[in-house]
Amino acid sequence: MTGFSSIFPPLLSTALFMLGNGYLNSFISIRMASLGHSELSIGIVASAYYIGLVLGALQIAKFILKMGHLRVFASFIGLFNCVCLIHAISDNLYLWFILRLLAGISLAGFYVTIESWLLEYSTNRNRGVILALYMVAVSSSQAFGQLFLDKYNADASLPFIVVAILLSLSILPVAVSSGKITRMHEIELVNITTLSKFASASIFACFVSGLMLSAVYSLLPIVFEEATNQSEKTAFLMFITLLGGMILQYPIGLLSDNFDRRKVLIWVSSVIILLSFVIVIAGYKNLSFSQLTIIYFIFGGMSFTFYPVALSMICDKLRSANIVSATQGLSLIEGIGSIIGPIMAPPFMRAFGLKGLTIYFIIAASCLLAFLIYRIIKANPVDSQNHFVVALHTTPVVAELDPRGEELENNQHIS
Does residue 313 come out as left (phi exceeding 0), alpha (psi in the -120 to 50 range) or beta? Predict the structure, then answer.
């Protein structure tokens, strides 16, 4: 296979998988809320998902080397399917924690396999295009998956079956493809202490990105459901938030190519804070649905750009040979933030009610804003900047698709 036909099977598998997984993530939060679980319980279960994703991303490559990509791919989707269906037959909170942990590990297996496949057919010439197509497949499918939220009641079992069907279908494009992975790359982590000496702003921005986006995925559906009392409006608001994250990422990235990226992040943080204050002051009940749609489209666009702009910022200071390992390290920093976010946000929701999550977003964005202003005052301006490249919140392996890194060497091939 050559050209687009080489990467179409993994991209199609990604679209089908993320359509189901995007829906499942939001539905589980709404389902737990309907069962009477507290926001903290929902957050802890969501945190287990990100723990599994981080741990899995560090270990899956070893399984692929031993078993082959297709067996690992099918095995982890099979595991994810079982996890999904067990949700339908038991509402035990402790079991759900374990299930979400396994789901995170399974998702890591899916991501690493797909990203390794895309790496197999990437070169310096096409790596940016492949990364952009992968970003569209992941982000758009996650967004459209939210539209399933109004199709079934929160106490129904059918949604888990629908997700299992989509996950099963995602095996087919890769399974029938003749493509194969002939090389596999271990995740190489740069020393974070060393990195922090000249890239502390990037590290903190990635951490805040994890704090915010994990709360968006796991807790924002609950807020929308309570604020609107209509599942179709919850579905659309989640859809528009994630759609904004996909559509606005590139325009803001281009803006960061022409201005100091730290100042762009300050501007982005300020917009998030401003929008959040509008919600806190006006209140959800006093804002029309159209107004909420506009606010959360922009909010999604702003919050999803912390990570890619932070990656571009650190790439401005590194030689191409060091970019992959550095961005892999930042990916794990964001993962750590994602583990903490769903646990930190619920106390604000309990203390301030419907506005609590928004107040949490204000505090997170304000911390980043203050730190960036401090860094601009203390640090020297950047002499030159690389071009912006879109980024995904998946696993550290996707960092190797970054066209700013040096071309993969032939001696990295597996014999």
Answer: alpha
Asked if 74 and 175 touch (Cβ cutoff 8 Å), the reply is yes
In which residue are the tokens 């964001």 written? 334
Q: Do the beta carbons of residue 40 and residue 360 sit within 8 Å?
A: no
- How many Cα atoms sit within 13 Å of 386 on the Cβ side? 21
Structural Rg of the chain based on CA atoms? 20
How confident is the model over 330-355, as a mean pLDDT?
91
H helical segments located in 170-287 = 171-175, 192-228, 231-247, 249-258, 261-282
Range of weakest confidence among 129-133, 325-329, 356-360: 325-329
Which residues face 413 on adjacent strands? 183
- In whole angstroms, give the CA distance from residue 409 to residue 255: 33
DSSP SS3 for 381: coil
* DSSP line for 137-186: HHHHHHHHHGGGGGTS-TT-SHHHHHHHHHHHHTHHHHHT------B---
Please tell me the distance from the alpha carbon of residue 257 to that of residue 192, in angstroms, as a whole number: 25
Cβ 148 vs Cβ 235: under 8 Å: yes
Residue 275 to residue 263: CA distance in whole angstroms: 18
Distance separating alpha carbons of residues 197 and 330, to the nearest angstrom: 14
